[in-house]
Structures are given as structure tokens and as C-alpha cells.
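Chromate transporter: structure, please.
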Amino acid sequence: MSKLKSLFEILVVSTRLGLTSFGGPIAHLGYFHEEYIRRRRWMDERSYADLVALCQFLPGPASSQVGIGIGVMRAGILGGITSFIGFTLPSVIVLIIFASILHTFDIGNAGWIHGLKIVAVVVVAHAILGMANKLTPDIQRRTIALVALVATLLWQTTYTQVVIIVIAGLVGFLIFRRKTTEEEPSPVLQFPISHRTGYLCLSLFFGLLIFLPILREITALDWIAFFDSFYRSGSLVFGGGHVVLPLLEQEFVPAGWLNEQDFLAGYGAAQAVPGPLFTFAAYLGAVINGWQGGLLATFAIFLPAFLLILGTLPFWNSLRCNYKIKGALMGVNASVVGILISALYQPIWTTSILAPVDFALASILFSMLVFWKLPPWIIVLTGSAGGLLISFI
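Here you go.
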């Protein structure tokens, strides 16, 4: 009964996040931090930061992988699946509906959508303040964060974040390897996943990546080509959901699966819904082959993320608790703070705070969240209403 209770709790909380988490992957990490770490204390700050760093290393939707990882640590593999369903299904349903009736309407510039973007600014800023206090307590780590911030702003490519995290890990190893003995030990977390399961998931990930294109050529079946295109797109993305869009366009528009106008209409719809941007695949699948295609596309594009996070979690404790690489993790975590600050500015701040009245609303929402300690759903509703009012000014 306790397992069922935990699964139900995960479903309720993740579904609420799936209905209210606007602003893209970095904003999602802020929402997760507020709900899972600050309010429910399902993980400690350092473990959450390590999990975020791990998911930044992996290709795929980082925020979805963080949510899956938290669900796994809470209630096993079923917990990870439940967390994923709750967070993802709301936007999948909405985008499949958009594909059939709503993508012809222009709601991307609606006032309440703009208000939700301002909410994302507030949530990310709050998360960054909390993580910075914990993860950059000294001048060395603040310097790493600053370099990561500057580099991600000035060098915006697909692999920038990965390169910065790797370099920060090397610098952290060199600077902090002696200091790790003085640090408070990282909590040892128990994962209900065996090493054998981890090896199996990683083998399946690489096996599908290699053999699906071969099977596609041999069989020439449309549904295999369909599955392969989405699976490969989900496997080769570093840097979040926005990076997957050009990959999907290259896969489906030139091949004639859908036209450029329908693709761009779906992109606008995806910006207007909460949850992970990878659910744009549900829209594309539904345009191509109805709701069945939408569900199959969603499964295909998220399957690599599942296999990677389930494949790496069993080895996470041995990595993060090994004194030889704890210094590297300290450097990585500091770089994540800089990356988050960079993302707060571009694209979240630059697309949300467009006038003094926007900054005024953001200040009110930030005070409600940080000083008055109001629940996030109240912040979301207030931000939406505030954005609607701003549109009439």
C-alpha cells in the first residue's frame, strides 16, 4: 500500500507540474527545485545538483530526465515512469488537439502566455539563488560559474554546455581533489535498479541507435522510418528542447511528411503549452498519422532519455561518492550555476521582460514566492492574470 501511495503522490505532484511548468527546460528545473527539494525534501540540495549535472551530460531532454530520476529514487522504475507520465501527458494531449483543430489560431502572443513567461523568470531566479548559495561558496567556484556564464552567452552552439561542463570538471578535479576530504560526505542514495539493468538499458540505447537506420533501409516500412527519425532526434540532442527542432525539421519537412507551414504552426503551439518542448513530437506525429502517430512519436523521442537515465543511475553513487572525482563534481556543479544564470538571461529574460511593467510584475511575483512563501500555483495564476492585464495597458 505504501508503494501505491508513493506512486499516487508522484502522479499528483508531477501532473500539477506538467500543467503549470512554463518556460522551457531551465525553468522546469526551477519548478522541480521548488516543489521536490524545497517543499517536499525528496532529495537534498547537493544530490539534486549532482543529478542535474548528470542529466546535462546526457543527450536528450535534461529536465524530463531529472524528473524521471527523482521518480526512480522515490519509488523505483514505476516511480520514474509515473513521474514522466504526469509531467508529459498534459502537453501531449493539448498538442495532439492542436494538431487537429487549434494550430490555425494565433495564441503565441496572448497576454496570459506572456504573463507565464514572466513567471518562468521568477522561478528560475529563485532556483539560481538557492543553488548558488550551496554550490558556489568560495571564490574558486564563483570564478568557475562566472566563466561558464560568459562562455555560454558568447559561444552559443549545440555542444557548448557539454564542453563547458567537461572543462569545469577537469578544473574542479585539479583544484578541489584535496579539498574533498574536508567536505561533508555526499548522502548515499539507494537506487532500486541493479547494475545489470543499467548495462541492459545502455546496450538497448546504443543498439537501437545503430540498428534502427539499418532496419529502416532493409524494410522500407513507413512506421519504422517514422520511429527511427524520432528516436534518432531524441538521441542526438544536447542542450535542451529547442535544439531538437532543427533536427526534426530536417527529418520530416524535406521528406514530405509535412509542410513548413504546419511545422511552424506546431512550433508556435508548443511554445504556448507547459511541460517539455520534446512533446512537439506529439504534434508532428498527430499531423502525420492522427493521435496514434502522436503517441508513437512521443514514445520514440523520449525512449532514449529513459534508457540513458535508467542506464546511468545505478553507477551514480560510485561516481559521486568517489573522492577522486568529487572535486570534479564540485567544478561541474559550479558551472551549472553559471549555465543557469546564462539561461535566465538568454532566452528567458530577453523574451519575457520587454518593458518596465514586465519587470514590475516580475518583482511582485518574486516577492510573493520568496518573501511571502506562497505556493507556486498561486504565482502561476497571478502571473497569467497579470500578463492579461498588461496586454490591455
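Notes: The two ends are 53 Å apart (CA to CA).
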